[in-house]
Amino acid sequence: MPHTASTARLPRAVVVSAGRAPARPSPALVRFVAALLLLMAAMLVAPRAFAATRVVFDIDLREEIAAGRFDPARDMVGVRGGAAPLSWTRSLIAPAAGLGRDGWYSVTTSFERVPPGGTVPYKFRIERPGQGEGDAGWETGGNRAIELVSDEVRVTRAFNAPGAPISLSRAGTIERLEPLPERFVGARGVQVWLPPNYERDTQRRYPVLYLHDGQNVFDAAAAGAEWQVDETAQRLTVDGQVQPMIIVAVNNTARRIDEYTATAMSRDGHTQGGQAAAYARYLIEQLKPAIDARYRTLPDAAHTAVGGSSLGGIMSLWLAVHHGDVFGTALVVSPSLWWDNEFPIRDAQKTPLPMSVPRPKLWLDMGTGEGAEAIRQLRKLRGVLYARGWASGDIAYLEAEGATHDEASWAARVEPMLRFVDRQFNAKPRDGNRQQRDPFPVEVRPPMPKGQGTY
User: Fold this and answer.
1) DSSP type of residue 143
2) Span(s) in the chain for CATH 3.40.50.1820
3) Disulfide: which of 32, 174, 275, 352 matches 258 by Cβ 3.0-4.6 Å?
4) How high is the pLDDT of residue 115?
5) Domain 173-454 is classified in which CATH homologous superfamily?
């Protein structure tokens, strides 16, 4: 709970007459006392993000051992998660708990920083020789979550058991819409965040930002972590730092991989992907008309943006390249540029771009903690886009130092993303492609701009 000023009425000061007024303290003493009080106040309200939180994981594997699903002589169990020091790509191994606790495994770690929202998604995973990095070994069900609410948090539960419930935080007015009938893709949930004063300012129309993986946008119920888009948008709008906009969060489904990719590829032993065009038709022909009919929107491309991370990042890029007449701005966040032998980069390089449509404005980012190959691919994409005629002012590029591939890292970048989108929504119209070139097909790429990030 935030610290708030007390509204209690202060007692009246009592004036006592004396023959001689007391000596006034020196100005130096007054300044010293004031500085001391400010320091004490700062210590009281300082955010907990700078205090380490110790977390103990106690894992009960007795049922797994009894059922033959875990062999203590061969297997190990670990914890994976979405905020450092946990990782989704490697396990923090939990040793056997010791005498008197047969079948229990325990490990302790410390979180040096509390991620946005204060929750960390995690799951237990059984590790055994030759298992690889597929679906084997994971707990059943979705991510669990822990809340870093004190100096020490203890998680004690059986493997596969549900996690403790977490508190959910939401800001502003968020409406849940009934799923649209299945036409191009399966039905899905949609949530709409409305800006402050939407109901009062009935003559105003608003730009719209569409976000993929919408169940992770406004709260942590689905994945154990969230982007905190509602809290950030509410704060920036109320403070006058961005103009009001409508934000539409579009949930994914069990066919997420298929719907967020434009080509099919063999992955984990079977073919996946290739339904991006169908998902795009859902967005453009079903969802957007429904949103424009229900809410007071500015429906043109200059006031319509789309965004997403990972596979949602390459889907946003695909929409910008192939449907720039609908989506004038795209947030391409930690994009999975590795998909199908770097198809997203090849697609951006070879797809004909109409001169009649301005180049969509693009936010490109990647965390340096996502690996050198991911950074190399993002730089390669940037070079292709510059060669295809994007002006430097039309691309915001960021390599986020230390950031990894998870909701906490993306939540930390939501504010500059929204500022970027706001600038595009409120930019003055310019003369079409006056600053753009169309060198298709292109082989020559211009030098990269200096610096690791501009936005």
Assistant:
1) -
2) 173-454
3) 275
4) 79
5) Alpha/Beta hydrolase fold, catalytic domain (3.40.50.1820)
Average pLDDT, 10 consecutive residues per value, the chain (455 residues): 34 34 55 59 45 90 95 95 89 89 93 82 93 87 86 92 83 92 94 95 96 91 84 95 97 95 89 96 97 97 97 98 97 98 97 91 96 97 95 94 91 95 87 41 35 41
C-alpha distance from residue 33 to each of 13, 18, 36, 40, 41 (Å): 21, 26, 5, 11, 12
Number of Cβ within a 10 Å radius of residue 143 = 20
Alpha-carbon span 136 to 69, nearest angstrom: 11
The CA distance from 137 to 123, in Å, is 10
What single string gives the DSSP state of each residue in 275-301?
-HHHHHHIIIIIIHHHHHHHS-B--SG
Do residues 442 and 349 make contact, with C-beta atoms less than 8 angstroms apart?
yes
CA atoms of 436 and 430, how far apart (whole Å): 12
Q: Which CATH number is associated with domain 49-158?
A: 2.60.40.10
The position carrying tokens 């539409």 is 248
Q: pTM of the predicted model, to two decimals?
A: 0.74
Residue recorded with tokens 């609410």:
149
How far apart (Å, rounded) are the C-alpha atoms in residues 159 and 64? 8
- Within 8 A by CB and 6+ apart from 266, the residues are 272
Site of tokens 């069990």? 254
Residues of the chain with CATH 2.60.40.10: 49-158
SS (H, E, C) 190-250: EEEEECCCCCCCCCCCECEEEECCHHHCCCCCCCCCCCCHHHHHHHHHHCCCCCCCEEEEE
pLDDT value at residue 168: 79
Q: Is 292 exposed, middle or buried (0-12, 13-18, 19+ CB in 10 A)?
A: middle
